[in-house]
Amino acid sequence: MELEHARTRIEELTEMIEQHNYNYYVLNAPTISDYEFDKLMAELIKLEKQFPQLASPYSPTQRVGGEITKEFQTVRHRTPMLSLSNTYTDTEIRDFDQRVRKTIGNEVEYVCELKFDGVAISLIYEDGKLIRGVTRGDGTQGDDVTANVKTIRSIPLRLKGDFPSQLEMRGEIYMTHAEFNRLNQEREEIGEIPFVNPRNAAAGSLKLQDSTEVAHRHLECIVYYVLSDSLKYDNHYDSLMAACNWGFRISPYISRCKNIDEIFDFIEEWNKGREHLPFDIDGVVIKVNSFRHQQILGTTAKSPRWAIAFKFQPESVSTRLLNISFQVGRTGAITPVAELEPVFLAGTTVKRATLHNADIIASLDIRVGDYVFVEKGGEIIPKITGVDFSKRPPSSQPFTFIEYCPECGTPLRKNPGEATWYCPNETGCPPQIKGRLEHFISRKAMNIESLGEGRIEILYENRLVRKISDFYKLTYNQLIGLKKVYPATDKTPARVVSFREKTVENILKGIEQSKSVPFPRVLYALGIRYVGETVARKLALHYHSIDRLMQASFEELILVDEIGEKIAESIVKTLHQPEMKEIIEELKKAGVQMSLSVEEKQTQGNILAGKTFVVSGDFGSAERRREIEQMVVNNGGKLGTSVSSKTSFIVAGSQMGPSKKQKAIELGIPLLNEQEFLDLLGKSHP
Ligand code: IVH
After folding, report:
1. Which of 92, 113, 157, 406 could be stapled to 87 by a disulfide with Cβ–Cβ 3.0 to 4.6 Å?
2. Ligand 1 touching residue 240 (CB < 6 A)
3. What is the pTM (predicted TM-score) of this model?
4. Mutate to test the pocket of ligand 1, among 224, 281, 306 (most ligand atoms within 8 A of CB)
5. 681: CB partners within 8 A, 6+ apart
6. What atom of ligand 1 comes closest to residue 86's alpha carbon?
7. Ligand 1 atom closest to Cα of residue 225
8. Could you report the per-residue pLDDT of 551-601, keeping only the tens digit for each?
9. Buried b vs exposed e over 179-194: b needs ≥16 C-beta within 10 Å?
10. Residue with CA closest to ligand 1 atom 18
11. Is 115 a catalytic residue?
């Protein structure tokens, strides 16, 4: 077949397959048999192999996966992904309605939807093509999981109809009960641990490195929110209906409500109806329909004021409490764990449940031997909510909390006003030491992949590492030949792990590479209590170096945006400990980044504050385009999706859309090429 002919046939096949996918996955109404569908697909695969230059990244053949993502890129959301405020009571729904009516008046209309229990996703489309899929992450930035998202058949790769050229869809990726059961059965057969619930299975699948494997997991996606600067609709409901015409799957269980009674009818219907759904929901979402009303109501830092989630009461069962054991965490916190007589709850067998802290045990008067109520409210670990006193054995004794650390025997302590007991032996208590080492090497910290939990255990047992800076003193001769014998358990045979040449080389290479991990992540890796990734980034950008951060007083720290008293106190206390000072000195000596690089300081400026940029066209690669977008944000600028009077600059690559160009000229908005944009930041081309 000649090239032109192949091109036409590929386009024909693509369109047919897309239409059949839509019929099957979105409309749930297939018009051809699986066999006929497979034949069309096979023809397309063959043609694309024969003419690789014609294979498009948006081709339906992409659905089978193939791409491996070693590490997911972090991407900043153009608009933060907020969460919803939750309620469990009718009163709070009434209060919400009252608040809305007070601002909007009585003409308000609501849309009630199901609250899907999966993983939130943001899908970016440009000119109708799926450019990117990003997880929610911390709401500000998430992981780029595009390759995996492309395997989900209810997510269109190309849109149809009258869609806006710049579009972001938000929705939920989830797994049906049927697929969850199939997957778990398969995992048990191959000796892998089954997933706890469909939500975890969906989340775990979306983060797999091999997209072919994701394609096998049969994830589903429904969209529940449309974002675009050029929407033709003035309300949520109509925009969702339009999205369905563009090729998205929307929930069929959606209802417009005029008053609180209609809202309660919807809640009641689904509180009962949920057990018949083929997937999990954990509540109902109530949204104000009109976009204008949404805008008037606005948002808080965390959630919109125009929406609320009503969460269903979780399922509960009663079982016997056999024992209470204790876990010691990385920060020394002691968590009591209930050992339960195994019981079936919401799809899984429960054997353990967290008891949180001593106060909770005391306030519920929980005793070993009691029958207790166990609930699973969407959490991974179930919790105990009460005691069935009618079944309490007469001989039962009140539970007394332990006074000494179960791991190192040190007397436990508690801070005034806090409920958690902790072991103060930070430098001598094994789970605390190992926990800090594990945190240091973890992916979001120093990302030393060649060292895992098992290997750290070996290093620890051989007394080679105690503090995080010890990693940088390890030598080849110390590591080679180290081994550990794991005895057989009832599930696994005995095995020996030993460090051979290749392993040792990899470990040392991983440690060496970690020396170039940027300062914000190093700061996070230090494992200061309450200093998570976001706080670490904030602090690094504010103080630029560990030395300056160490000089900061409590009073200074609390002036920094988003740093509260608890965090400030923990920073001052930790950074002034002699052990920590020594560690920091050693890390510096080893060459670990203890300050921002000149480049980072420059790029984290505010030069573009108050300016809105639209990045459009081709920059050689999708990666480069993302970098440019990231530079805008890092320098305090905002990203716009479509050209409007609010746009300050357009960064134009080659093949920028002619209509956009025209609009820019009409509005007198300056067009910058890549170099001109870099000049603006005072950078040279990479
Ligand atoms: S709307 C700005 N609608 O619930 C509002 N969210 O805590 C954005 N969710 O992260 C959310 N079903 O993952 C919305 N019909 C629905 C939903 C839904 C499930 C999830 C979503 C979000 C979380 C909110």
Report:
1. 92
2. no
3. 0.54
4. 224
5. 602, 603, 607, 608, 631, 635
6. 7
7. 1
8. 999 988 988 766 888 889 999 999 999 999 999 999 999 999 999 987 777
9. bbeebbeeeeeeeeee
10. 115
11. yes
Query: Is the CB of 168 within 6 Å of ligand 1?
Result: no
Look at residue 107 in the predicted model and tell me its pLDDT.
92
Query: How many Å apart are CA 191 and CA 185, to the nearest integer?
Result: 10
**Confidence class of residue 191 from pLDDT cuts 50, 70 and 90?**
very low
What is d(CA 58, CA 662) in angstroms, rounded to the nearest whole number? 27
Task: Tell me which amino acid residue 257 is.
Answer: C
Res 608: pLDDT: 75
Ligand 1 neighbour 175 (Cβ under 6 A) = no
Q: How far is the CA of 104 from the centre of ligand 1 (A)?
A: 23
User: Do 26 and 248 contact (CB within 8 A), yes or no?
Assistant: yes
**Span of 172-181, 249-258, 369-378, 631-640 with lowest mean pLDDT:** 631-640
What is the CB neighbour count within 10 angstroms for residue 539?
Answer: 26
Q: Which of 426, 425, 422 is nearest to 437 (CA)?
A: 426
Neighbours of 607 (CB within 10 A): 14
Beta bridge partners of 352: 339
Answer whether 304 contacts ligand 1 (Cβ < 6 A): yes
User: Ligand 1 centre and the CA of 84: distance in Å?
Assistant: 6
Is 82's C-beta closer than 6 angstroms to any atom of ligand 1?
yes
Q: Single out the catalytic residue among 39, 46, 115, 638.
A: 115
CA distance linking residue 432 with residue 425, whole number of Å: 8
Compute the average pLDDT of residues 102-121. 96
Fill in the DSSP letter of residue 501: H
Closest CA to 175 of 280, 248, 249: 280
Query: For residues 66 and 208, is the Cβ–Cβ distance under 8 A?
Result: no
Q: Which residues contact 457 (CB under 8 A, 6 or more apart)?
A: 434, 484
88-105 pLDDT, tens digit per residue, is: 899 999 999 999 999 999
SS3 467: coil
Q: Following CA atoms 38, 41, 46, 50 in sequence, which dihedral angle do they give, to the nearest 10 degrees? A: 180
Q: State whether the beta carbon of 84 lies less than 6 angstroms from ligand 1.
A: yes
Residue nearest to atom 2 of ligand 1 (CA): 82
- Atom 14 of ligand 1, nearest CA residue: 224
